[in-house]
Amino acid sequence: MEPQVKRLKGSDCGGSDSWVAEPVLSDEQSADVELVAVYAAPVLDRKQTSRLVRQLNAVFPLDGLQHLKRVRTARDQNSPHPLEVLLCRSGEAADAAELGSLLPSDGNSWEGLGRPFVVLVPARPPLTRPQYQQASSFWPTSFHEDKRVTEALRGALFSPQQRVAMTSFMVAAVTAARAAAQLGMEAVGAAVVDPETERVVAVGHDLRGEHPLLHAVMVCIDLVARSQGGGWYRNQNRYPACSFAPAGPQGGAEPYICTGYDLYVTREPCAMCAMALVHSRIGRVFYGTGSAHGALGSRMKIHVHKDLNHRFQVYSGVLRGECQALQGDA
Amino acid sequence: MATEEGRKAEPEVVFSVTEEEINRWMSRAFEMARDALDNGEVPVGCLMVHRDQVVGKGRNQVNETKNATRHAEMVALDQVLDWCYQKNLDMRSVCRQTVLYVTVEPCIMCAAALRLVNIPLVAYGCRNERFGGCGSVLDISTANLPNSGTAFRCVSGHRAQEAVEMLKTFYKQENPNAPKPKTRTD
């Protein structure tokens, strides 16, 4: 009889515990928290807090620092003044840390504020939970959480069932890559999937031996076009590991290029292929292993470029071991 | 890596084009762009010229093929490949002495493709603010990129206003192939 306990432990998802799909985030999302110097002051009289905050909001509206809470509890628990309030950016006033020189005395009473001090606070709103945690260690910060990013960073975005399906799609890409290697092409394979129906729309591999620009992704994009009654190249016909499933008559909307589709590709796409995916309006990209000239994380991040009109999610590391082994074969 | 280094060390053929050549070939590229516009495609046209001979020409064919990568440059590069095949010539050696004339700055994808096949010089009309890969959005043309072919030089501005006007005319029309925006019911 099978040792049942062991089975349960070892095979909870996608065949292994080490299943990964690391989100490839923008530089802004991945960066350490950037800090800026501001003046703050202890609140000497707690009862004055709301009045002081109101006055400060009017005089120093914290332009560009709206993500910061105006008041925090003092870090030092033994402090005689348990609350501290943000005054202004330290660049906005002279270095003098006297209340009189920092705050205008036009009718407002600043009674209840203590001697100002300089403190480093997060310069930008946090974009991810790790950034939020880091930012909050400097000054209380508000955070508009993107739940998807948090779950993805925790490695908890995809259910065990989804992982099994996703693994099978990458296996299709790996199988195509092996076929390419057999033909003397580069060992790169790709599969395009409709995640709604889990239907594989196209599987293709590198055909650089035919044409220097027929990278696996370009081959797949054309196979998707063929599934929609279009397409340009016919040379894939000679390669049995390159195939597409014609889009059947469906109740839903007509498919439009790669809109809503996922791409599984064994190696991180180059700039040409990454931009081809932008033009094709791909939904998400999963790749196995990075590449020195990769444009979806390694050398560039075309999928999150602010000036481009289509952005998409990218995850790396799906079947990394198998995908790296392909590179070794080359 | 070693081959990449070796390639860089080769003495580069410095290509230049005369005003007369730009006038002559660009007017044909504009004819291609006009043809694209007449056929409901983004009006971009181009010519690949090798030793005073047209070895490839193209215009945008995205809607016709339902393949969003069928830009003028990609279409023309396919023709160059066919031409080389028929003449039994090596595509890369031909491309190293081929100039691209195109009405609009190549996009990031096309710029990367042009690097991969070692095109040394591109003459283009107007900038491509949406997708340009020769400086407008990213600078793929001259960037120092590993394993990504060779950098190329650009000569820009010829009949730029006319090229922009054609794009504006196109984008004023609705793309008949785009899916209708879904109205939210929830």
TrEMBL record, chain A:
Its cofactor is Zn(2+). Keywords: tRNA processing. Residues 164-315 form the CMP/dCMP-type deaminase domain. GO terms for cellular component: cytoplasm; nucleus. InterPro entries: CMP_dCMP_dom, Cytidine_deaminase-like. GO terms for molecular function: tRNA-specific adenosine-34 deaminase activity. The keyword Ligase does not apply. One of its GO terms (biological process) is tRNA processing. Residues 1-20 are annotated as: Disordered. Belongs to the cytidine and deoxycytidylate deaminase family. ADAT3 subfamily. This is Adenosine deaminase tRNA specific 3. It comes from Cyprinodon variegatus (Sheepshead minnow).
From TrEMBL, chain B:
Keywords: Hydrolase, Metal-binding, tRNA processing, Zinc. Gene3D superfamilies: Cytidine Deaminase, domain 2. One of its GO terms (cellular component) is nucleus. Its EC number is 3.5.4.33. GO terms for molecular function: tRNA-specific adenosine-34 deaminase activity; zinc ion binding. Belongs to the cytidine and deoxycytidylate deaminase family. ADAT2 subfamily. This is tRNA-specific adenosine deaminase 2.
